[in-house]
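User: My advisor asked me to double-check a structure prediction for Heavy metal translocating P-type ATPase before group meeting. I don't want to rely on an old file, so could you generate it fresh from this sequence?
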Amino acid sequence: ATPTALLVGTGRGAQLGIVIKGPEVLESTRAVDTVVLDKTGTVTTGAMSLVDVVGDPGTLRWAAAVEAASEHPVARAVVAGHAGALPPVEDFANQAGRGVTGTVEGRRVRVGRVEDAGRWADVVRDAEAAGRTVVSVAVDDEVRGVLVVADTVRPSSAAAVAQLRDLGLAPVLLTGDGVGAAAAVARQVGLDPDAGEVVAGVLPEGKVDVVRRLQEQGRVVAMVGDGVNDAAALVQADLGLAMGTGTDVAIEAGDVTLVRADLVAAADAVRLSRRTLRTIQ
Ligand code: ADP
Ligand code: MG
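Assistant: Sure, here is a fresh prediction for Heavy metal translocating P-type ATPase from the sequence you gave:
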């Protein structure tokens, strides 16, 4: 019965858009009790758009000039939100999980996570409370404005979180984004920031440590992610699930690829793997 059951599992998996790398992956799904969910691109679509610019005139132009050299979803939103020609950037540098810097028209411009909100602390707080990502723009080390970027929670993410709980998995939202934005997105999908279900402000290299710490507490961890910065955590996790819409690096790092851009596929993968295991044993 073994080959037939595996075949059924694989066939049904193909229907559901779940690609499992090998039979040993099925075994990993049995004991998982925790699921770490990357926010941007996993719980949300990751297709961001610029919704607000607050600051001195020229803020958006300077920011867009530097972001034109970056592939980050925030960068794409900022560049798309600017109309007109952009001045060239020199000495561009990307600091993963923090932001970008470059020289524009002889001025040093930094766009990235808000360390100092300058005169716009209220704007930052309100936008983050609405689940938006906010970045600050500094010119020659002085904060000149903030840019508000909106992402979209995938419509099925709340249902997926409920299904993962039903499967006995404790969900944790993990992100490099700020605490406020993370908490707002968490609430939209049925996660409780006050119950330790959100870990925010994590630098790219810190994601793997969050998974390791959970494992050290005795948890068996599944991780769902899409980004380059999720790859190490996907490898470290007992079960790594990569969004098929994600980066090649993440897909390579995962044990399972979720072809559908939908978090429900993660619950489907765990359910199907467990069912297939029961059939063959
Ligand atoms: P996530 O974990 O949600 O995928 P990242 O680790 O990619 O997020 O980024 C974390 C934070 O770093 C972003 O929310 C943003 O504040 C800042 N950041 C990263 N790259 C950029 C960029 N190119 N421009 C502006 N801000 C950036
Ligand atoms: Mg992501």
